[in-house]
Amino acid sequence: MRCGPQNLKVSPIYSEQKVALMWEDNTFCLLIQDEFAYDVDVLSTDDMTAIDHGVVVVPRDRTGSIHYWRWASPLPLECAHNTFRVRGRYKDQLGISAPSEPQVFPKDRVVEVGSNVTFCCIVPPGVTFQQMTVSSYSNRKTITTQINSQTYAMTVHLHKPSPASGTDVTCNGAEYGACVYAGYPPRDTDLQCETRDLESVECHWRTERKTNSLANRRTLYKLLGRICWSASNRTANKYRCVHNVSIQAQERNWTLTAQNVLGTLELTDRADLTKRVHMFAPQELTSSRIHARNASLAWQWSTSQYNKLNIRCQISLRSNGNTDVKNYSGVGLNHALLQGLTPNLNYAVQVNCGTEEHFWKWSDSKYATFQTVGDIPDALDVWLWRMEDNQTIILWKTPQPSQSHGRILDYEVTWSSPSAGQQETTNSTVVVFPPGNSAAAELDPSREHVVMVTARNSHGRSLPASMVVLRHAPGEVTNVSRIVGRGGGFDLSWPAHPDSSCGYMVAWTPTFTRGPGDWKKVPPGVTHAFITENLTPGVRYSVCVYICIGGAPQLLERREGYVEETMIPAKQITGLRWEHVGSDVRVSWTAIPPENQTAFVQGYIMYYRRLGAKDAGLNPVHLNVTTDDPEASSLTARGVHVGSYSFAVAALTSVGEGGGNAITLTVNPPSYKSIMAIAVSFSNVLILLLLTTIVAYKNWTCIKQKVYPPVPKPVLHCDWLTLMEDHGHSILNTRESHSSQKENVDVPQVFCNRVAASTEADREGAPFLPNLGANGYYQQQQQQPQRKAIETTTKADVSQSALLSFPPPPPSVFENLLYTAGMPEQNT
Amino acid sequence: MAEQDGAADAVLDEPAPRRSGTGRAVALARLLHQECGHLLQLYRERESFLDDHTPEGGRIVSLSPDTLGDDPGVEERVGLLHAALRQCLGLLHCLTLREVEEEMGELEGEYEAMRKNVRSRLEHLLLSTRVLLPQPGEAEVTPDNPCTEEVDGEMGSFALKMWTYRVLLELLHWADHASLTLHVIHTQSQETEEV
Q1: CA neighbor of A704 nearest in space, from A612, A800, A775
Q2: pLDDT per residue over A672-730, tens digit each?
Q3: Which strand ranges, in their side-by-side order, compose the sheet holding A366-371?
Q4: Of A483, A619, A636, A754, which residue has the fewest beta carbons closer than 10 angstroms?
């Protein structure tokens, strides 16, 4: 039972010794649709015992009025202190109970944020007051003052809005207290009204979130003076109210009143709502009469008011990631014929509608899906590639779902050579199954051929795509120009050709791999194309433009280029070698093979620097020389001093220097070379002389025999010889010979051995000659080493003469015939 | 608590023929107890002044001392429990009405969602305990509170808050009592089956 008094005012009338009570019904009493009463008790404040009692009956028609009650005190009012208690009673249910525990007042007060509110706590007799607290204000210091023996008061400045459940004020613990709501007057904004069905007005407005307290949630909204019972949409802080009203085609004010206990706010939107029709979404959207390339859509409207409305509907068709929007208009529009559809495709449909005139907003969307019926495939996109072995590759692009109109079962490739004179027409056909998209054909290059390709699905075969292959004329040379890629592709344009009856074709393939690449057909009248498919940066492409004349492609121009030039990888320049020419160093290299070039070479640059210059305290100068000749294979560095250098060569391209390689070389002084040459030559000569000397030494006897043959000695009788001996002279003219084997021979032995020595000579039948032995000299004894003979006979420098001269013949052989040293004794 | 949830969920997930009526009721009571505790916690967070406060006064829902014999049988215990739970449902029903009236409509916060959850679980538990009664058809499972009693003789939002707090404590108490009582009954019934 929550019905009870509020704003109870107790007024003493001292002159009449009476107390007048006045109070109002609280809002809960307004819900009681019946008679109820108030019990009024007069209590002695000291012990709270009842002194008197009264009843005030409130008839049904008096609910909400102010009530009065007077009590006549038996004692003068100054003598006793009394407490008055007023409780509502309805069907034996009492509202306020006897104050047996602490009470906090006011209860459920609604105040504006920033207000100062004084709360009081009345403790029952015998109970000691401890404290009063205010939730969420516990950190603030509050002063409590005592009003009387049981009543204490505290003033709080409510500087912030209360939470949704209110701010709690408690006394002597959490058991007893009251709630207060600090909020704001209505702060609603952005009122906008429209009509959805031309029979009601719908207004929207917004409220500020931070005013969301109980005070504001008890805000009463009225639109056009009528209460909005379900106005709120609290999650989005947006409100909406709808009232049935006749919508006239004229401007008027649409007024919203927002009221709470803290204030009232009025918002107005002035508009002609016939120009603000926000249609409902179409209902029961269905598709029908679906064919391969068209379908019908139909829907219903939820209100008959739309039947006379000029409606515009926007239909979005989404399939395979593509969206196509079509617009339809009409009075009471409720259907649309969709055309230009693709066979065998799933479509998602979205329909939004609005008024054609004075368009306000699109309606909510309605969705549907359908699938078109299949059809034969579209004609294929065909191309030919002639290989070097007279084979021709027939290619076609695999049709997309929007082109195949169903699953492709097979491809049929036919080529024929129309008869010319006595030659027979030859036809050949092959069937290729997916995923294959090419066929090889042996086409006689001396004849013209017609190639046709068709695709087949469950609905039939496509129209043939044909291409004419002209007789091959070898030796055709087409100038190759350069093309530069831009924006990830090649932007081509060419002069129009008057004979291009079937347009143009552009074909491109990597220049150095020589295989079928990609192509693009260009319709007649168009002389430009931008190709981007299957192009890789750093790869040189050959791009050819063909004109199509009577179905036959004929080469118009050929270009080469990179869709994007990239840096040439390092060390592509090979075979670095150098030569020193005077004070210059010339470095040569082997050019980068074209298939390894990832950009066009525009020239070369060579860097060189001296090694170890810093350590030697020299300036490490970095120099370079360049050439803009892409065919260059050498560069010369001028004025290179003696020392060690690093030379690096790189190719110049539009994207920078690349392909670089380096060598290290040492430049030596020029005289050093000469010295080296002389030294080498001299060394060679010395070696030759040494070898010659050795050979001569070993074969001296033979040489001497050849060069200095011995003079034969005269033949002497023994008597003469004996005569010489009898004279007792033994003249021995020992003269040393030059022979390396000629020794100083002891004379006596010579004599003694003379006879023996001649025996051999006699036996040989030769005239008597001393036994010269192997080398021409008499050999009996070799008393001295051979070296001495050489030493005594020559005075020349050993180092020179040993290499340059031969020993003179021994003079003793020829000079003294009486020299008995070498004379053999003749046997008689 | 998490282990109880797991055990309760495991029992509830068993195929029906294998799961006994008392076993299912035990599992439901345990879940209800857990959710009542969560609901109380959410309310304390919203009304911070209630933190660590124990309200005065006795139980709102109490069993008549005359109905409790020296050794009440299983059916009697289940019947008393069913009656208490039905009173709890009535209190929760009135609580919801008053809060909706106070807030001028349904809020969509965590507390409101859990309040709905507790109500559904309590209704489900009442259906389970009714099955255990000797004459299930005569047992009611709807709220029995007309929601016309005074709120402790006081008016105002503060008094409603205190009353709400007492009702939530009452729900927690009886959910705990239900899980204990049904567990004992379930254990006894399983021992009887084994014998």
Answers
A1: A775
A2: 566 676 778 888 999 999 999 999 988 888 888 888 777 777 766 555 555 555 554 44
A3: A322-331, A310-319, A346-355, A366-371
A4: A619
CATH superfamily of the A188-275 domain: Immunoglobulins (2.60.40.10)
Task: Classify B48 as helix, strand or coil.
Answer: helix
CATH number of A382-469: 2.60.40.10
Residue among B49, B107, B151 minimizing CB distance to A174: B49
CA distances from A253 to A242, A263, A266 (A): 15, 22, 12
Spatial contact of A655 and A566, defined as CB atoms under 8 Å apart: yes
> Which DSSP state fits A654?
T
Asked if residues A17 and A76 have their Cβ atoms less than 8 Å apart, the reply is yes
- Interchain CB distance below 8 Å, B108 and A135: no
Q: What is the mean pLDDT of residues A252-274?
A: 93
Per the structure, the count of domains in chain B is 1
Residue ranges of B 52-91 with Cβ closer than 8 A to chain A: 53, 55-56
Query: Which of B107, B152, B157 is opposite residue A179, by nearest beta carbon?
Result: B157
Tell me if B105 is assigned to some domain.
yes
In a domain, B8, yes or no: no
The span from the first CA to the last CA of chain A, in angstroms, equals 192
- CB contact (8 A) between residue B47 and residue A179: no
A214 contact residues in B (CB cutoff 8 A): 102-103, 157
Q: Give the DSSP H or E segment for A529.
A: strand A528-531
- The one-character DSSP state at A672 is H
Query: Is the CB of B161 less than 8 angstroms away from the CB of A165?
Result: yes
Q: In CATH terms, is domain A283-371 a member of 3.20.20.210?
A: no
- Counted residue by residue, chain B has a size of 195
Is residue B11 included in any domain, yes or no?
no
- Of B47, B55, B156, nearest to A165 by CB-CB distance is B47
Q: Which domain holds residue B35?
A: 19-194
Q: What is the pLDDT of residue A742?
A: 43
Question: Does position A826 have pLDDT exceeding 50, yes or no?
Answer: no
In chain A, what residues touch B48 (CB-CB under 8 Å)?
A: 135-136
For residue A27, the chain B residue with the least C-alpha distance is: B156
What is the crossing angle of helices B21-46 and B156-194, to 10°?
A: 160
| Topology classification of domain A480-555 | Immunoglobulin-like (2.60.40)
CB contact under 8 A, B150 and A97: yes
Closest approach of chain B CAs to the CA of A96, in angstroms? 5
Check residue A745 and report its DSSP letter. Answer: -
Q: The pTM is what?
A: 0.54
> Is residue A498 predicted with pLDDT exceeding 90?
no
Give B47 to chain A, closest Cα distance, Å: 8
> What's the pLDDT tens digit per position in A401-454?
889 999 999 999 999 887 655 556 678 899 999 999 999 988 887 888 899 999
CA distance B49 to chain A (A): 6
Question: Is B134 at the interface with chain A, CB within 8 A?
Answer: no
Residues of B in contact with A171 (CB under 8 A): none
Q: What is the largest CA-CA distance in chain B?
A: 58
Topology (CATH) of A574-668: Immunoglobulin-like (2.60.40)
Integer Cα distance of B176 and B1 in angstroms = 13
> CB distance B104–A174 less than 8 Å?
no
Q: What is the mean pLDDT of chain A?
A: 80
Kindly indicate whether the domain formed by A5-90 is annotated with CATH number 2.60.40.10. yes
Short-list A110, A108, A88, CA closest to A97: A88
Residue B26: CATH number of its domain: 1.20.1250.10
Please name the residues in contact with A356: beta carbons below 8 A apart, sequence gap of 6 or more: A310, A311, A312, A329
Chain A residues with CB-CB distance to B154 below 8 A: 96-97
CB A479 within 8 A of CB A505: no
The answer to whether position B168 is within a domain reads yes
